[in-house]
Every structure is written in structure tokens, then in C-alpha cells.
Design a protein that fits this description.
The strands form 2 sheets. The protein has a 3-stranded antiparallel sheet with strand order 2-1-3, with no helix packed on it. A two-stranded antiparallel ribbon has the order 4-5. The chain has a domain at 3-65: 2-Layer Sandwich (Ribosomal Protein L30, Chain: A). The protein is globular and about 35 Å long. The protein is of the alpha+beta class. Helix 1 crosses helix 2. It is built from 3 helices and 5 strands.
Length: 92
């Protein structure tokens, strides 16, 4: 199956509660956030329910890669950037 990229373009505020819950179930948390899902029937039904709040486009292999900053690394469950004082041992 093909994948689709779903981007939230409008707010769920002042909408029915089930539309907000549908956006959360899709993994969308705020405007301009994007997720990639397979185009399964249940996902397409969720997209249909909130179609006025989202944009849908085919996903490419490039969208699947996580574009992280090259100096970003994860330590102890937190993202840290090289060169920050929190990532280095303190000089005594």
C-alpha cells in the first residue's frame, strides 16, 4: 500500500470534540505538524472526517527520513546539541 502525508492546516478549536480526538488519533498535535500513515481504510476514514482541517499528499521516501540536525544526539532520553554546556562535563 502507498503512504500518505497528512498535515494539519487549521485548528480544531471551536470544532466538535470528536474532530479534535480524530486529529490526536492521527498523531497531529498542532498546525503545520505532519505525519505519515499507510492509506488503510481506517486512516482514510479519519482523514475524511477532518478533511477540512488537513491537507493530504502522497508520501515519498524522502519524507520518511527524520531530518534531524547533524549535531543533535539523544542522551538519556533527551535531545542534546553538541556544543551546549549541558552535553559536556563541567570543567573543575
Amino acid at each position: 500500500m502507498a503512504d500518505v502525508r497528512i498535515t494539519q492546516v487549521r485548528s480544531a478549536a471551536s470544532r466538535k470534540a470528536d474532530q479534535g480526538r480524530t486529529l490526536r488519533a492521527l498523531g497531529l498535535t498542532r498546525i503545520r505538524s505532519s505525519v505519515v500513515h499507510e492509506d488503510r481504510p481506517e486512516i482514510l476514514g479519519m482523514i475524511n472526517k477532518v478533511s477540512h482541517l488537513v491537507e493530504v499528499e502522497p508520501a515519498t521516501a524522502e519524507l520518511h527520513r527524520r531530518a534531524e540536525h547533524p549535531k543533535t544526539r539523544v542522551e538519556g532520553g533527551r535531545k542534546r546539541r553538541s556544543g551546549s554546556p549541558w552535553g559536556k562535563e563541567r570543567a573543575q
